[in-house]
Amino acid sequence: MTFAKFVLHWSPDASKIAGIALSTTSDAVVYAVMVETGLNKMDIGKLILAACFVTDLGTVLALGILFANYNIWLALFIAAIAIAMVVSPKIVKTFLSRFEGHVSEPEIKLLLLLIFALGGLAAKANSEAVLPAYLLGLVCAGAFAHHRETMHHIRVTTFALLTPFYFLKAGALVQATAVFKSLGIIALLLIVKMITKLIGVYPLAKIFRMDTRTGAYTTLLMSTGLTFGTISALFGLTRGYITQEQYSTLVTVVIGSAIIPTLIAQSFFRPKVTALSSVQAEDEALAINEHKGGK
Questions:
Q1: Which among 170, 220, 264, 285 would be 20 to 30 A from 191, CA to CA?
Q2: pTM of the model
Q3: Alpha helix (H) ranges present in 100-226?
């Protein structure tokens, strides 16, 4: 934000959008990397995913606090989220127990209903619709822990249908001429993002006694950005806080941050896991017992 304000001379609101968009991590990229490498079953993978979740939750909250309309709609939105966080885990758990496996997928329809309803309230309050989705995921995680089939269906729906349409919309608003015109600024913003992430994450990794390889891997994955970065930039564009040229610049930086740190991390710093985490060991023991019980 400081770099955008005092070096690039962007407006205060545009600088805030830049700061928020480039402070995010990429849950989508990190989740995909963790699953494909098997690190999601290890303690380090779960730690990185949790850290990305907390980071993105913080950036979405910042977006809402800085730009929300403080009126009756915001009050209704906050009240609805509070009620949903208390009630929805019980309702979702009941639906999963009773309806999971039905062809019509009523449990997924329930989730979509909750997300769209709260997302509509968020839009009316000039907040970001992804915030209630994040909070619902947080409180309902326990209910989904033992329903892997539904989790798989949600993942397929998200990555195969919803995510591509979102990125088509976000990408269609990028101006190619603006990107080529701002290549120098894009490179500088990408460097600033990675340096600030390095300063913020790597020392903490060392404080928590990570070895150099694991600390560097964690820092690089925490430097990624994609979905929430583009969401923040699109939020700024649709509400007139940034120009289309600034939007194009930010989205290009965000995409670059999804690719470059991930390639470096996977190529040079991927942790060498030699033992099962306690969680994975428990999962495998449970699977063995179930197999024996079946026999």
A1: 170
A2: 0.82
A3: 106-124, 130-144, 148-157, 163-172, 176-181, 183-207, 212-222
